Amino acid sequence: MMSGAEALLADAYQRYRQGDLAGAEQIARQVAAKGHEVAALSALLGMVALQSGRTAESLPHLRTALADTPDSLPLRISFAFALANTGHYDETRRVAAVADVPQLRRIIAFVDQQEGATQAAVAGYRRVLADYTGDYESWYNLGLLLSELGEIDEAVEAYRKALAINVQPAFHIALSKALAKVERHGERCESLRAATARFPADVPLCVELGLAEHAAGDFAAAEAAFRRALERDPRHIPAYVEYGMLLEALNRLDALEALVASARAAGLDAPAIGFIEAWLLKRRGRFAEALPLAEAAVGGVSAGRRAQLIGELADRMGDADRAFAAFTEMNRLSAEGPASAYARAQDFPGHVRSTITRLTADRVAAWSRAEPSPGLTAPVFIVGFPRSGTTLLDTLLMNLPELDVLEEEPIVERIEAMIDLDSTAIDTSTSRDIDAFRTTYFDLLSKIRPDRDEKRLIVDKFPMNLVRTALIGRIFPDSPIVFVERHPCDVVLSCFMARFQINRAMVQFHDIESAAKLYHLSMEAWTRTAALLPLRVHHVRYERMIADLDGEMRALLAFLDLPWRDTVLDNRTSAARRVHIATASYAQVAEPIHARASGRWRRYRRHLEPVLPILTPWVERFGYSLD
């Protein structure tokens, strides 16, 4: 026959099993108050505290219970879980190492994950999943780790397996961020559209969809997603921030001003709202007012974005040291991210070196004779190192009705990826091969411009095609090539100061030395190609555009055999017509043409001293000066 304490304890356990945690705890404390100290009582008090979210409070009870019943696996698992979630990692390992079961292995993997032992954590989760494929939390954590390592395809697979078992908004968001790193925009948007349809009230999902639609270039859909997020939660700060950054990128400053006003009217005084207001003030030229708001925006916004804004404001206010420090911090933060690790692993500098190695006089002289068949008009290609003035130039050319200007569509890059350039595919191409390459180019173009007017001449502006001009010259020997040049020091500095979308080329701009080295490699590839191939090249110089736009554009249009139109000089009207400018120069090209950035490098000369030996030969070769 049960004693009174035993009966009470049995009743408490019954309530616990029925989910009545408060009732179970109340009875258990009555038992404890009578001086009864048994393992079952400690276990119950520990489990109730743990499941009530009072994890730290559960620890002494669970520790006592496990000491009395060390063979209880459920108790050991619960205690190890509580230890791990309160940061007692050394004790967690000791408790979990006693039994080799999937539940405890998962806890050890979690501890490895928290302590930064990424490879050990990956191995641990893989062992767990080998025994228990239905563990969606392990799939999710494995996805996070693989994404951190840059193993994006495997991360995506892990997230999809987690979602197949248990559909959660957080899993969809993690999947989206992984797909974003490899620019699988269509797949990302499709997944998020389905997720928001399933969880229409989930505001973070709406925000993530807005980011995805923005990245995919559907700005109306992005705006609609951010608006839906704010309709569901008018006080959701991230929605305001991302919507504000979209409007700023679209140069819709009046709409941005209205968004800031609506946030203020709602009583939101969070630093993040001040951050988007600072962007607005910066674009309005009110730098001194913007800087304190940018500095105060700690938390709630990306630290990299904050550093970027502080750097741009300090630059405009003439504080070169502070600006350079802020851009250094911006790049450091970006370099630490998994997207950057993934991009660096693709070794773009190595790719350019391989291109240079293949560009020898003997090899080019041995190329097979091949000419394209008469037919489609060859595009005009605009190349030049990023931040050399190519966006200003393409904005001006968009004023001409004879032209259809493509802005940074990686068509040539995709053709390059289809060809094994280390083989003799280019060397031995026949006329039929060249025709096939050209057909592929226009097939890819038709997907971007399905309704294009074929009477309009294509202008393909993609700066880093600079390193692919040998391929362009082989496929399109009849193409005019416009090379945009700018003082090497200004170009490299500007690349370092810009916050690019990460890819295998742009990741090189995270420090000034790697930026200068990529500039050197790119110019080596370009000048070697221009020396070996009979390219039709016209040079446009950024500094001449600033000083004498009329003269520079007249020379270019004569080269392209196009009639003169005064409208070609109006960058602001052209920029205003564009829904979006997909480069880091989106704000500058909407302003009147100015000389502010010309010669800016001189204010930063002290910071550029380490890379001047790399850049000086190119300064001299292109006729610039270091004075």
TrEMBL record:
One example GO MF annotation: protein-tyrosine sulfotransferase activity
GO biological process: RNA processing
Keyword Nucleotide-binding: no
The organism of origin for this protein: Sphingomonas sanxanigenens DSM 19645 = NX02
InterPro entries, per the entry: HAT, P-loop_NTPase, TPR-like_helical_dom_sf, TPR_rpt, TPST-like
SUPFAM superfamilies xrefs: P-loop containing nucleoside triphosphate hydrolases (SSF52540), TPR-like (SSF48452)
Domain of life: Bacteria
Ranges of the TPR repeats in the UniProt entry: 136-169, 203-236
Official protein name in the record: Sulfotransferase
Keywords assigned by UniProt, alphabetized: TPR repeat, Transferase
SMART domains listed in its UniProt record: HAT, TPR
Taxonomic placement: Bacteria, Pseudomonadati, Pseudomonadota, Alphaproteobacteria, Sphingomonadales
